[in-house]
Every structure is written in structure tokens, then in C-alpha cells.
Amino acid sequence: MIKTIFTCSIMLFVNMACDKPFFTKSVKSFWIENQSDHLIMTLRSYQYPDTTIPDVQNELGGILAGEKAPYDYDIKNWSELFNQLPIDTLSVFIFHGDTIAKYSWQEIRSGYKILKRYDLSQEDLKNMNYTIIYP
Questions:
Q1: 116 within 8 A of 134, measured Cβ to Cβ
Q2: How many Cβ atoms sit within 10 Å of the Cβ of residue 130?
Q3: Residues with Cβ < 8 Å from 69, sequence gap 6 or more?
Q4: Measured between alpha carbons, how far is residue 9 from residues 6, 15, 16, 23 in Å?
Q5: 95: burial class by Cβ within 10 Å (0-12, 13-18, 19+)?
Q6: CB neighbour burial string for 56-84, b if at least 16 within 10 angstroms, e if fewer
Q7: Per-residue pLDDT for 109 more than 90?
Q8: Euclidean distance between CA atoms 111 and 53, whole angstroms
């Protein structure tokens, strides 16, 4: 019993001395920088080569004009994410904030009302310094 308490205590102190516990994954992020003069909304898709807008409106993220926002992943490295994709490509859709306010999600999807779509491999993200600059 004392041996178990001692071992747990040592593990607790070792974990407290680290920035994060040794058994956790790290957070990897890529950023979207909005250099336009209006609000943009972003959406990720993991279904490439299917480039249809996913039916996940609740996953939209907004970025104000002149701002930058991250997409965070709880992964050890980028390969962990890209190995789970059908093809080594992640899609990011950019929408105008006014479009999201004006149209229904089904109209946006069926009319493909996007400003831009980025199809990015792991190498593309690395070459972009993990930052998508819109426009």
C-alpha cells in the first residue's frame, strides 16, 4: 500500500513539473487570417475529393475583418489527422458573413455560395506556415 502511494505521488510530482502530463496529446493548430473588410465564416471538411459543403452548419466559425482565428486539433502530429482522411487533403470553405445571414443553409449548400475553398495537404499547410490568409 505504501509502495502504491509512493509511486502515485512520484507520478503526480513528475506530471506537475511538466508543461502538460506526459500521456496527453499536444494541440496542433492552423490559423485563418481574415484580411478582407468583412466578416467571414469558415467550415472544415474531411471528405475530399467530395467538395460538397458539409451539412454541419453548427460547426461554422466566424472571423472578423482583420482578425485571425485558430482551428485546434488534439493530436500528437499532423500525420495523425491526415492519415484519417480519405485522401491526404483537408478542405476549408470560406463564406461571406452576409451570405450566412441572408440565405438558408440548404440554399447555401445547393447554390454553392462560397467565397473560396482551400484544399490542403499536410505539406500545403506546412508551406503556408499553418496559416491560411484570406483573400
A1: yes
A2: 15
A3: 31, 32, 34, 42, 61, 63
A4: 5, 10, 11, 16
A5: buried
A6: eeeeeeebeeeeebebebeeeebeebbee
A7: yes
A8: 10
- Strands of 68-75's sheet, edge to edge? 68-75, 26-34, 131-134
In the predicted structure, residue 3 carries a pLDDT above the cut 80: no
- The mean pLDDT value for 16-28 works out to 58
From CA 87, how far away is CA 46, in angstroms rounded?
A: 9
Q: What is the full DSSP assignment across 79-109? A: HHHHTTSSSS-EEEEEEEHHHHHHS-HHHHH
pLDDT higher than threshold 80 for residue 122: yes
Residue predicted with more confidence, 63 or 4: 63
Concatenated DSSP letters for 68-79?
EEEEEEEESSHH
Mean residue pLDDT of the chain comes to 87
Q: Each residue of 34-79: pLDDT tens digit?
A: 999 999 999 999 999 999 999 999 999 999 999 999 999 999 999 9
